[in-house]
Amino acid sequence: AMSSESIARKLSAATDVDAVVIGAGFSGLYTVYKLRELGFTLRAFEQGDGVGGTWYWNRYPGAGSDSESWVYCFSFSRELEQEWNWSCRFPPQPEILSYLEYVAERFDLHSAFDFETRVTSARYDETAGHWVVETDHGETVTAEFVITAVGCLSATQVPEIPGRDSFAGNWYHTGQWPKAGVNFTGQRVGVIGTGSSGIQCIPVIAEQADHLTVFQRTPQFSVPAGNVPLTDEQRETLKRNIREIRENCRWATIGQPYDLKDHGVLDVSEEERRRQFEADWAKGGFEWMFGSYNDLLFDKQANDIAADFVREKIRDKVDDPETARKLIPTGYPIGTKRLPLDQGYFETYNRDNVDLIDVREEPIVEIVPAGIRTESRTVELDTIVFATGFDAMTRPLTRIDFRGRSGVKLEEKWAHGPQTYLGVAMADFPNLFMITGPGSPSVLGNMPTSIEQHVEWITDCMAHMREIGAKTIEPTVTAEQEWGEHVGELADATLFPQADSWYMGANIPGKPRVFLPYIGGFGNYRKLCADIAENGYEGFSIS
Ligand code: N01
């Protein structure tokens, strides 16, 4: 009779491919590129009918990157870096999508993907020692490894407002925008939500629509993007220095080519801080906060100084004092909800065709065929835009039915908050790797920087396993527990837990209140991951 071990070996010899990759955004594209380069066989699946991920789905008017174009892209190919020309500092969505299509074309990545195909489940078969992956086309693929490249902000959230389905007009979520676009000309439009997506689309919709009503629940601090076209000369200079710029990103706190100062706002005089805040404000972009004083996100008194500076800016921009009052954020520290960048957001409220409703003062009661009914009136609308965000970081993974050892269900494992080691792997889920999973820095910095680091770490690990003849890798329960505690402790040392943000899971009714990303700094994290690999994958068991 065959021993169970030899049966297992025989079965695993029947494994279809080395790896299954889920998703064709920045992460999936680079994963496919790396796996092929290393000679691994693979199958890859993507829900959309093309590449692009975030930039495939988020086609709402005004959508674009909040990271500078020259770093919001891949750095793995010098040729690619030199060939591609960005038009401006913060590229709009169509340009980023074109870039990703170009990358896919240039490196023949399309051919790896089954498009319009959703992975519905992935079950670890302990006897065969491989993953059994199923798609919504009823196909089953077996693989040694599964790599999720599903994004952090890809599971959209449409609130359960009573009567939603009775609305006579059309409604859209910003994160699932129709490919054909939406023409708002002559329409009365309502936008619900004033996060980054709302703040980007509101000024553009206001220009097109006949009338716009914004339904705001929490006012946002926002910093001007300062978007500008790039001149040929600027592009040349950037390209000449791009290696150095990208190297700085690799070790910086948020993966951008700048870092926090080595002193706090409380260490300088009032004149000095004002001068500095104004100078940074004029530059535009995230640098205002993340290239600024190092105490802003740790010390409430320091944070209040920065928050007051922005409140004053908002007050200056908005003509009507009552509207300004509604727009000025209070009740949470600046930067603890993801800081939006804007292009004329606050000024939009000076237009005659724009109204603001604060739904804390005037709650939405229901959606009716004619529009949205609040406690005091019915706002008649032709179209509703839900800029209401995402079930961030966890839902993109739990909506796939992952089952690890002994059939343990991912959704159950994460019932009280995600448990991962480094945000990249999980106990009981051998050979499953997550790109920018919960517990990794991901959303707290420049995504392409994070993605490249994860993809390289994961594929290096796979190559190492092949080299030593290992079959499985998974974190120990202890390593996972300690990582979870570490992620929590780091967050607790900051002001972040004080806000009801999607970082905290607070935007989703019933979601555990847990800080999701790793906030110890991207550069530190990169060093830690490298050291762990160097020390024979500390915290993992390999067999
Ligand atoms: O989503 P959000 P988003 N009734 O969750 C409100 C990235 N991103 O799509 O704050 C009324 O931030 C909700 O109110 P509140 C970026 O990381 C990047 O805008 O929960 N309102 C909030 O105002 C960003 O952070 C870029 O009280 C309701 C809004 O909807 C992340 O994606 C561009 C409500 C949701 O804001 C998510 O941004 C865009 C309800 N029932 C996005 N439910 C760039 O890089 C929710 N809201 C350019």
Q: How would you portray this structure in words?
A:
The protein has 543 residues and is of the alpha/beta class. The chain has 16 helices and 20 strands. It has helices at residues 4-13, 26-37, 54-57, 78-83, 93-106, 196-208, 232-251, 270-283, 287-290, 300-317, 321-327, 395-398, 410-413, 447-468, 477-492, 522-534, and strands spanning 17-22, 42-45, 113-114, 119-125, 130-135, 140-148, 170-173, 188-192, 211-216, 223-224, 341-342, 354-358, 364-368, 371-374, 378-380, 383-386, 401-403, 432-434, 473-475, 540-542. Strands 1, 2, 3, 4, 5, 6, 17 and 18 form an 8-stranded mixed β-sheet that branches. A hairpin with a 4-residue loop joins strand 4 (119-125) and strand 5 (130-135). Helix 2 (26-37) packs parallel to helix 14 and helix 14 (447-468) packs parallel to helix 16. It is globular and about 70 Å long. The model has no long low-confidence stretch (mean pLDDT 97). The structure holds 3-acetylpyridine adenine dinucleotide (N01). 3-acetylpyridine adenine dinucleotide binds next to helix 6. Residues 64-66, 153, 159, 174, 192-198, 200, 215, 217-218, 338, 359, 387-390, 443, 502, 507 line the site of 3-acetylpyridine adenine dinucleotide (N01).
